[in-house]
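Chapter review: from sequence to fold.
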Amino acid sequence: MIPIVPRFTSEWKRPLLVLPAVMLVACAAEPTPQPTPTASPTPTFLPLTPTPPPTPHQTLTTYLAAWQAGDYAAMYALLTAESQAAWSAADFEQQYRRELEKITVTQIQTEIIGVEESGDSAQAIIKLKYLTRLVGNLETELNATLRRESGQWRLVFSPTLIWPELVNGQQLLMVTVSPRRGAIYDRNGIPLVQLSEAYTVGLVPSELTEDSGAISGVARLLGLPAEVVRRQVEAALQAGVGAQYLALGEVTITDTQRFGYLFNTPGVQFNAYTDRYYAGNGAAAHVTGYTSFIQPDELETFQARGYMGSERVGRTGLEAWGEPYLAGRPGAQLQLRDANLNFLRMVARTASTPAQDIYTTIDFNLQQAAQAALSGFTGGIVVMDYATGEVLALASSPTFSPNIFSNNRHAFLVNSVFNNPQRPLLNHATQATYPAGSVFKIVTMAAALTSGRFTPETRYTCTGTWNETTDPNFIRRDWFEQGHGELTLMQGLTASCNPWFYHIGFDLHNWNPQWLPDMARAFGLGQPTNIGQIEEIPGLIPDATWKQRTRGEAWNAIDSINLSIGQGDVLVTPLQIARMAAAVANGGTLLQPQLVREIRPAEGPPTFTFQPLVSGTLPLSAEQLAAIQEAMKNVPREPIGTARLVFRGFRIPVAGKTGTAEDPGLFGVNEPDAWFAGYTYANRPDKPDIAIAVVVANAGQGSDFAAPIFRRVVEAYFGLPYRKFDWEETIGVPRLPTPTPEPGATPAETETPTPTP
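The token string follows.
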């Protein structure tokens, strides 16, 4: 290296000679009278030392530091005039950004190995290391040329300062190999989601001809009642939109093998596509979730995780939770090509990481039956194997078809889902909360027993009204107007006698107002179940601390009385209630619900295998729990049981609890939310017993709506013939006109709900 020695000339000394001369002239002039100055130090004049021009090493150091900071303007300012004439600032920056993006660089590390100066030119060697997202770390050496212009060292730019082989039009090309996105299966290996050749199926009502068999054929193909399809066609014609395409569902090519004649039937349309296909036309939409393309504001985040940016990623459900398994990791090849894109050499490469498949705990046949049972309603159903915590079905209504998010769908279908006031994307099994109503009486009975103040045989006389407070105007009425008469505590739960539970709530309030809220939390309410694999919300169990914090008010007896029947501010999810029922059924173990049975690559052993996870234990003795179980078993079989009519003569023994929860609406009272929660105890070796929770929003009495749906789910699980719902014309076909809530109902006070079973 040739050091630069500063050259000093007489010009550098000239200012030092001028100053004394000026001072001498000033002394010779006639002095002007001035005030006597205060003493000041005599100025000291230091010799001026000029700053030498930066060395080539300093210029190069500054350039590389600006590169690492992404300051392309500062880099451009250090180029030679010739380079700036050849490259505009915008082109210069674009060249850097384009190449670094192509290489997927995340970090740049540089080190100057040496600089050799010769006159007004210098040559430097730079050790370069790129950290990349797709091909690991790349190391190379760059040769840099510097020239002295107007006393300053500047760089000569060419693309070889980015990569040394970018000469003569040669270019780098990143080729990615993305693995097949993993499939999602049910517990028996039935595909819920997979890459498939499929068709969208629909009708153009005005083009249908009589006796063509189009409606019945399409209905059979899609697994829909023909009458349901016929009604949709008639509605389109009556609305004057018969010439528009009426989308009905999706099927795989395999599904159409027995329906070839439909391809030539007037009015029937098939649109082929190959994409990620979701089976069941929305039957498991809230379990699987859906995918969509990476959005511009997400690009940087996903690229940092190794994505190219053109992929579709999971948005909800198992598609979102299982993204690390289902997506795998793309492989990449950084290739050097000539100016005509002919391959020259492989610069770097990484192999792709295969995706894995998810095998769920879901029984797809049961899932479809549960979803169909909710058709036309808003609500949710959760079915669990109560010995393990495996979720066998999780249905939410209204639902949607995840297939509409595929890239070949019309945007208006996606918008219709997002803009639907019924919010079909909301998972009513885990993301919607409801007042618990009388299913909460299971908790209240447990609190009564564990307090030591009540036994299963403690008796109470129900007259149909209740008032144990000092306020003579504070009266609560039973849903059974004439009252139930004398009942044991067990009978009180079976008959869902509200005054019995008002009595318990008031007594516990006077003894320990925190006892009942704490018992509810011990049953898993007011907190997440930690299912983790789909989105959920915790709900709410109110108590004195919560009320003081949120409302600035003290907890009072009315709050405890409302809580005793699951009203007031209580909010729960069907998943929480199903887990509660499972804990009662299995002997008191509160299990963590799970949806994933196995995660498995295409080849090799599973990387995850289901194991039951215990969240806690109900704080009940064996005798206390047995009393609750017996009371629940009597709900469908004893004359005073609130679900006796629904289950009379039923072949599968079930235990359960009805609930009818008041739901005050924004502009007036809604119809109550109907609940039924319980379990089977058939003890069959071929079928594990199950716990089930059903909620139907704003439908009416739990015994009228939720209990029949509960029975339908049990029928589907055990392979029994279906009993027709009261609201059906035939199985799967609702009666017309569809009942609607009666207008003009009197708003209900949350503090004083109308007692209902």
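Two observations follow directly from the output. The chain has a mean pLDDT of 89. The two ends are 95 Å apart (CA to CA).
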